[in-house]
Amino acid sequence: MATVKVIGAGLAGAEAAWQLAQRGISVVLYEMKPHKKSPAHHVDTFAELVCSNSLRGDKLENAVGLLKEEMRRLGSLIIACADATRVEAGGCLAVDRQGFSDLVTEKTRNHPNITVVAEEITQVPEGPVIIATGPLTSDDMSKAIGEYFGTGYLHFFDAAAPLVTAESVDMEEAWWQSRYDRGTPDYVNCAMNKEQYEAFLKELISAEEAEVHGFEDKRVFEGCMPVEVMARRGQDTLRYGPLKPVGLVDPKTGKEPYAVVQLRQDNAAKSVYNLVGFQTHLKFGEQKRVFSMIPALKNAEFVRYGVMHQNTFLQSPKLLDRYYADRRDPLVAFAGQMTGVEGYVESAASGMLASIAMAAKVQGREVPDFPKETAIGALGLYISDERIENFQPMNVNFSIVAPLEQRIRKKAEKNLAIANRSLAIIEEMVQAGL
């Protein structure tokens, strides 16, 4: 039986190990927990969600919804565990944070073809290996990868939102509703009028930030921008972003509020909620002071404050192929956010594709062709596109998926047609014994 090393048991690493093991390959999964953790990690289990507990939209008209469905049909560990630990979040796939991590850990540790070794790896091993040490790769391993490629990393800053207890939210000032009443009313909506919003904005802009070495606004990844950075971009930036009121109606007034902060369930017990879109690197005391200006959160109990950390990623178009493998050595592959895919689902998808390809290589089979018509294939083609000059992390989106031959005017119909085409391709691959 062939043996493949997988370094790191985050979402990408756990998915990679699972896919290899399911294909009859012996896997040694190295994870530095519990002996060592990054500043953003707090538990000993695998696939820890360090930012939001949401895996984002779950509809096929949404690119990440399509990516999740492709992965479901391909037997994804991460999506199966997310489905099993799902909590209510309207049209999103959100999970019980700890329950999800526990389940991934249990299934991974109990697989007969996976051996888990609690050890920090500080050198790039000889292949076959998949390195999925994440955007928070340890300093020693980060240095080793840099030396392996002979080139520097790129990097950006990432941020996590605060968590509050459900019982501390003043429901006299809030109400349950999902935007446009889609699905069930799973969000707690905390409204602000114009005067309250402007006072909040003033304090948010002037609040004291925690020190983050090398931080500059221009280096913040747009998809995970701290709320205070957004606030500095204009008076109404937040009202068109995480505080947008559209699709919501305040039952007190029967009208759309001026601004709304939404809270999303963070655990299965419904005892903890996160402030949606409120990634931040304000000092903890300042977070308590400023965020308590939101009327429904005036007595909020914060069980975790927002944190800021640096994420690191490779200049993948110069270094990796469409299967996330080193262009020089196809038996050394990388996976996860360190490759420039952005988001939980995208990270797991990269681990899936890297491992499916690796399994074929070590078993002497032809590597399956995941075309640009599929979301999982489009992501691999994006990170390996040598024509990209200013490479930046990318969430999956329909712009990187091959367009339809026929023109469809309505966006939702067009996206659904793209999704159905993709799933037909995936189904053919599954039926062929992928």
Structure explained in plain terms:
The chain has 434 residues and is α/β, with parallel strands linked by helices. The protein folds into two domains: 3-153 and 314-431, FAD/NAD(P)-binding domain (3-Layer(bba) Sandwich), CATH 3.50.50; 160-309, Beta Barrel (Elongation Factor Tu (Ef-tu), domain 3). Helices cover 31% and strands 17% of the residues. It contains twelve helices and 16 strands. It has helices at 11-22, 63-73, 77-84, 97-110, 139-149, 194-206, 227-231, 284-291, 316-319, 344-362, 375-383, 411-431; strands at 3-7, 26-31, 54-57, 86-87, 92-95, 114-118, 129-131, 154-160, 163-165, 174-176, 187-192, 259-265, 272-275, 302-304, 307-313, 332-334. The chain has a six-stranded antiparallel sheet with strand order 10-11-12-13-9-14. A five-stranded parallel sheet has the order 6-2-1-7-16, with helices on one face. Helix 1 (11-22) runs parallel beside helix 10. The protein starts with a strand and ends with a helix.
